[in-house]
User: Fold Response regulator from Nostoc parmelioides FACHB-3921.
Amino acid sequence: MTKRILVIDDEDGVREIIQICLESTTNWEILTASSGREGIEIAQSQHPDVILLDVMMPYMDGPTTFKQLRAITATCDIPTILLTAKAQSCEQQEFLDLGVAGIITKPFLPEDLVIDICKIVNWNYMNYMIES
Assistant:
């Protein structure tokens, strides 16, 4: 079964890099949103298997978006992985304390992104990799 991943990031370039990286190496369907509000709407209607959520966004940041996703019955159980440039362990611990599934630090290596996502949500990445 194909996994559906929702990428919520306000930066067009970051969304595009993640989408290209994931679509070129896996059989996953990638959905994208440019804001927390749009991401919540897509999560409610499309029910992704995982959400990749940027921490630093205008209007509604990642932690606020995550809290709203947790408050909605249809989205409260979707594993959410934060994408952040904040590498300090104390900052990362604050995010983990929110209840996110995990954290991926920017910048990330495109070839490691699938492996990192699979490790965080306990999927066997070999089941999803496209053979080259």
